[in-house]
Design brief:
The protein is of the alpha+beta class and 184 residues long. It has helices spanning 3-16, 24-32, 88-93, 114-122, 126-155, 163-181; strands at residues 35-39, 44-46, 54-60, 62-68, 74-81, 84-86, 100-103, 107-113. The chain has a single domain, classed as Jelly Rolls. It has six helices and eight strands. The radius of gyration is 17 Å and the shape is globular.
Amino acid sequence: MNHLAAAQSLRSLLADHGLGDAPLEDFVDVMALCREDLLDDGDVLCHESRPGKEMWFLLDGSVAVSKKNYDGTPHHLADLHAPTIIGHMTLIDGAPRSATVTAAGTIKVATLSKPAFDQLVLETGGAGDLMRRLLISSLNEQLGRGNIALQRVIAGEEVELDPETQDIAEHELLRTTASFDGFG
């Protein structure tokens, strides 16, 4: 893996989170703990309800996020585009994956294992600070998106729903929960 190129992509992600001021060497240190993976269109990065042992920095391309409803029918929730992070929640709380993430075209990811993640978040200074700042910023963004989505669903609460509208409302609730899980 070209750690410098991957670090610059990660720096771009952090700039989106207002954190692009960290030294480039901290980004390189994070990328040095990752392995680069290329996935083809339709390859699944992670499956809903399964345990997770890694997270990803999406460096190039896009992924589709889906979640199953009560009867097992998958619903498309969001498309995520590089640069972004994927799958970090399971490393934080140990819960199973909240959604399925599938490559939409060829993608390049930097894969960070659970042991490397743990090493980073416990590290003082440098790359550890960078990782913690990214996680806090990402979680804050997730809560904000989730709150907005929930407010939209609540605003439509007084409407009597026909079966088709009920399906739409169910889909919106799935999207809302996905927002809190980091997708959407």
